Amino acid sequence: MQLWLHERHGLKRSLDSVYYWLGKLGGALKVPCPVHAKKNAEQAADFKEHLYQKLQALDLPSDRKVRVWIQDQARYGRHTVRRRCWGCAASARSEAGQKYQWGYVYGALDVVSGEAQFCFLPSVSLELTYTFIEQIVAADPEAEHVIIWDQAGFHHADGDPRLPERVHLLPLPSYSPELNPTEKLWDIIKDHIANRVFQTREDIEAALSNALEPYWSSASPVLSLVGDGWLHTQANGT
Predict the structure, then answer these.
(1) What is the spatial distance between Cα 221 and Cα 218, in angstroms, rounded to a whole number?
(2) Which residue among 12, 52, 147, 198 sits deepest, i.e. has the most Cβ atoms within 10 Å of its Cβ?
């Protein structure tokens, strides 16, 4: 901004002056959210605008309840997660674990009712993903289940003969994690395990369970993640 003012208008201003006027104009100094270079913004916008039509195209039976889930998974491990914390002005220190022992938490949010399902699994694969799908179906065996998720290699394609009956899959556009509210949940629960050392994987799973409990025991935290915008409205319309 200093350079632009000087080259375009012949004005020389101090950095403090530039910050002052940027603030007056409503600007803020922020770290930008990362966006993958391969993301197709038009595809992401189309998915948000036409989710209702995509759900209708699944030709769901009209005589059964429909559950619309959005799913994702996150890796956790004994290598300490670092987050900001309050401390003395001189320094802030915490112990750090360096063990490379990992697991995965699978999660699915019902974007209409606010129900949530979670499962700890040792890795990611088509077989383990199928295990979690079975858990989702068992939550309401008589319903049709639509699962919205990304295009990871360990996610089945819609119509896969290995899938349980009454399961329908809808892929998100590639490189568009912002469309999945479950991504926000993983960031929230990291606050509960940050700056702590866990001696076993069972210890960290217990801590994660405590952080996740409000989401499987009450609909309101889940619906606050989903919001009342495009996802909830269009799924509810279906």
Answers:
(1) 7
(2) 147
Distance, in Å, from the CA atom of 8 to the CA atom of 10, rounded to the nearest integer, reads 6
Task: Please count the structural domains in the chain.
Answer: 2
- For residue 91, is it within any domain? no
pLDDT, tens digit, 9 for 90 and up, residues 112-135: 999 999 999 999 999 999 999 999
Cα 53 to Cα 75: distance, rounded to the nearest angstrom: 33
Residue of 58, 51, 28 whose CA lies nearest to 176: 51
Could you tell me whether strands 66-79 and 144-149 are parallel, antiparallel, or unpaired per DSSP bridges? Answer: parallel
Judge if 109 and 195 occupy the same domain: yes
pLDDT at 232: 94
- Identity of the residue numbered 84: R
Helix (H, G, I), strand (E, B) or coil at 168: strand
Residue 36 in any domain: the answer is: no
Query: How many residues does this entry show for the chain?
Result: 238
Instruction: Return the closest-CA partner of residue 98 out of 83, 81, 79, 82.
Output: 79
Neighbours of 164 (CB within 10 A): 13
Do residues 128 and 217 share a domain?
A: yes
Evaluate the CA torsion angle 223, 187, 204, 109 in order and state its sign: positive
Domain range holding 14? 1-30
- What is the rounded average pLDDT of the residues 151-169? 92
* Domain presence at residue 168: yes
- Direct distance between the N- and C-terminal alpha carbons of the chain, in angstroms, rounded to an integer: 49
